Amino acid sequence: MPATPAWPPSSLPRLYIDQALAADTLLTLDGPAANYLGNVLRLQPGAEVKLFDDRTGEWLAQIKAAGRKRVSLEIRRRLREREPAPDLWLLFAPIKRGRIDWLVEKATELGAARLLPVLTQRTIVDRLNLDRLRAHAVEAAEQCDRTALPELAEPVRLDALLRSWSAGRSLLFADEEGGVPLAEAAGPAPAAILIGPEGGFTAAERDAIRSLEAARPVSLGPRILRAETAAVAAIALWMSAAGDWSRPPRSAPPEQ
Q1: Within this chain, do residues 93 and 147 fall inside the same structural domain, yes or no?
Q2: In 2, 134, 190, 215, which residue has its Cα 20 to 30 A from 152's Cα atom?
Q3: Domains in the chain: how many in total?
């Protein structure tokens, strides 16, 4: 007997909406979202889309009217609750544009809960366009089916971060001088991964990090990795050892 196809299909357009959504309510979109649905995809009344709000989960909506500058939708029903993302932070020294955009995109896809830029003595980029980075995180969440956006925090200096560190959150820092393989060191959340700048931490910074009771130096293997590669590798290792990669895939919601 053939399997019943999931509904709605995963191929439906999917958008983040920065407001709480609820069933049987009307929503009017303008700006880039309306342009994408009405002019890029050329969707007509009756077409269905998926919406998520980082608050209440993911919803099925139907277009009621589509113009050149505005699109009106009716929220039909909730498809999923907001996902319980693992409490993993990524702490990273800012790097050049393009590479940092990629880092934020991939960290979002991999499931990091919080992204925190950390300014170190060897950081070469001290100004970040957080609005641009948030846009990359939103686009990545739309594409990878996340219902919870990562928090993107304001940059903080390493010394200030260490002074305020909570003993209840483990700190795995990629130490170029070596450490325990991250897959072995990964423990349950709450946890954080600290990736240094190009050129690594200074000796004084390394000593300050190691002085934290919650800190543990880890290794990412025998090769020298670029900062963005190290961040992605570290998140993947943690997710496979202590995160949600071992959870069974979610089933399609029942038709209502």
Answers
A1: yes
A2: 215
A3: 2
